[in-house]
Design goal:
Helices cover 0% and strands 41% of the residues. With 241 residues, it is mainly beta. The chain is globular.
């Protein structure tokens, strides 16, 4: 989901019989500015006979809405089977550029995660899952014209990443838990190297994703779960008393 320049909210999601199928495509709906109800769903992206896995939307806060997506060679998406495409919109998602490859080579991590931002250095950064319960960063210094993969990996998949006020990157991920907690990864060189430690939060499992982002007002925002989908678990919360 992304907030568009015109104030609309644009949401995209899977439409399919099953996740690994060739038929998996993306649907979309728009909540128009000041409207009370979302538009009826419509087709957003569907490469013929390809598994269109792992979509991400990001508005750069100025003019451009970005769409990133994995693109399979056929059915399935695991085992390094995705290439990576992107396209852009300058009119809040009404029309889009022709899709082009960020990465045409399968075997390089190309499963985007809904975590994108611009660093204080001006780089566009988004997260991609990779095998081994790890995540990497795709980084562009020129507004998406060229891209490179970070030199090292984040602990956990589906990672949420933020830039701290001292310019370091901090990430929380799912998997590769440390001392029974969500792993925290810290990088002082835009993902070339990371150090790992335990966070203070309980781990999450299949079917769950955390959210870590910086709000426009400045504070960091974190949302997650305290247990699996089948087993309730609890954590202590410190309040004002």
């Amino acid at each position: 989901i992304a907030k568009c320049k015109n104030g609309d909210l644009l949401a995209i999601w899977y439409t399919c019989f099953r996740g690994p199928g060739r038929e998996l495509a993306l649907a979309a709906s728009r909540l128009r500015y000041e409207a009370e109800e979302w538009d009826d769903a419509d087709l957003f992206w569907d490469a013929p006979d390809r598994n269109d896995h792992a979509p991400a939307l990001w508005f750069d806060g100025e003019e451009t809405l970005y769409h990133f997506n994995g693109l399979s060679a056929g059915p399935g998406y695991k085992g390094g089977g995705l290439a990576l495409i992107m396209r852009t919109s300058a009119d809040s998602g009404v029309t889009w550029s022709k899709a082009r490859f960020v990465n045409p080579e399968r075997g390089i991590p190309s499963q985007p995660v809904a975590c994108e931002f611009r660093t204080s250095q001006g780089y566009i950064v988004f997260v991609s899952d990779m095998p081994g319960s790890r995540s990497v960063l795709w980084i562009s210094p020129d507004n998406g014209k060229t891209w490179k993969v970070s030199g090292s990996t984040i602990a956990g998949i589906h990672a949420g990443v933020v830039q701290l006020k001292d310019d370091r990157l901090m990430a929380f991920g799912r998997g590769n838990n440390i001392d029974g907690k969500i792993p925290r990864s810290i990088s002082s060189d835009i993902g070339e190297t990371w150090t790992y430690s335990a966070s203070s939060f309980p781990p999450i499992g299949g079917g769950q994703r955390l959210v870590l982002m910086r709000l426009e007002e400045g504070p960091l925002f974190f949302a997650s779960f305290t247990g699996s989908r089948k087993t309730p678990e609890y954590m202590s919360i410190t309040d004002a008393s």
